[in-house]
Amino acid sequence: MDNRDLCGRNLNIEDLEPLIELLKRHHYSKASYHELGLRLKLSQNTLEKIKKDYGEVDACFRECLVCWLRKADGVEYPTIDTLIAALRGIDNAAADGIDEERRTYSSESSSDAGRPLTTPPKLHSKLFCTCQLTIFPRIEAALRIVAVSK
Q: What is the rounded distance in angstroms from the CA atom of residue 107 to the CA atom of residue 103?
């Protein structure tokens, strides 16, 4: 599977190997799988069970991604953009590299590449917010709420 196939859609369990290769290519440290899992909205209980059942870091990292791709714990949007956002603050170099690769593939296949990313609606205090995340050079990111509806 070509990595460009990971862009612009929800990911699923069939994307596990290309996703692992993508993270490996961008030198993501598997040792921080627990923090990544929390940022991907997996529960503490799920991550503790993974650690108990799998023990070794490589296996725990893999199972963390499996749970995310299978939408455990109510995960709604397993996407490359969600992964990039989760990586921010854990491994900015990996996040930047994956984001750059995604943008490269997007610009090859889409005429509107380079526009701000729009996240899926998020439930917050009974309101749905649509946000834009724009990456600027020398500034990590700017977040702007572009729509709020009940």
A: 6
Q: Are residues 109 and 137 in the same domain?
A: no
β-bridge partners, 70: none
What pTM was computed for the model? Answer: 0.68
How confident is the model over 65-102, as pLDDT tens digits? Answer: 999 999 999 999 899 999 999 999 899 999 999 999 88
Q: Is 47 helix (H, G, I), strand (E, B) or coil?
A: helix
- Are both 78 and 141 inside the same structural domain? no
Contact 20, 1 (CB under 8 A): no
Q: Which DSSP state fits 150?
A: -
Other beta carbons less than 10 A from residue 86's beta carbon = 19
**What range defines the domain where residue 106 resides?**
3-114
Q: Are residues 23 and 90 in the same domain?
A: yes
